[in-house]
Every structure is written in C-alpha cells, then in structure tokens.
Amino acid sequence: MNISSQNVNGFIVKVQHRENIGTPWVVQAYKKILFWKRRISSDWFLDGDQARLFAKQLSGELERGSELIRNRKPGWTLRRPAH
Fold first, then answer.
1. How confident is the model at residue 13 (pLDDT cuts 50, 70, 90)?
2. Whole-model pTM?
3. What strands lie across the sheet with 25-33, from one edge to the other?
4. Domain carrying residue 22
C-alpha cells in the first residue's frame, strides 16, 4: 500500500493507494482529537495525479481554516480522470 500524509492545523490529509490493477486512490481528511483521529472526509479517484492535486488543494484550504470542509459536505465520491 502506498500512503502519504500531511499534518495541517490539527488535521491530517492522507493519500492512499493499494498497488493492484484497477484500485482507486483515496484522499481522506482526519481531525486530530487528543490521541484519536476522526475521519471527516473521503474522496475516491481513479487517477493518482488527480488525487495528489486534490490532497494539495485540500491541505491549502485547511491551512486557511476548517469552515470550508463543513460547507463542502464531504462524502464518498468517485471522479474519473480527465481525458
């Protein structure tokens, strides 16, 4: 499994991908609470570049404040790569 993570203002943004053919890329955001973390967002992608770009954008938005993640109404999404 290929995992990269970034800590931003009390949040963790992770990009995960299993190294099998046809498996999606998953970008998850967690809120750190003492010793635990609570998942607040999960987005699924079919393309690694698109997933990394979204994770970078999400990290930048969380640096500015967590209001956007509440307004975005995150959930499970599947996004096709741009052709």
1. very high
2. 0.76
3. 2-8, 11-17, 25-33, 36-45, 78-79
4. 2-79
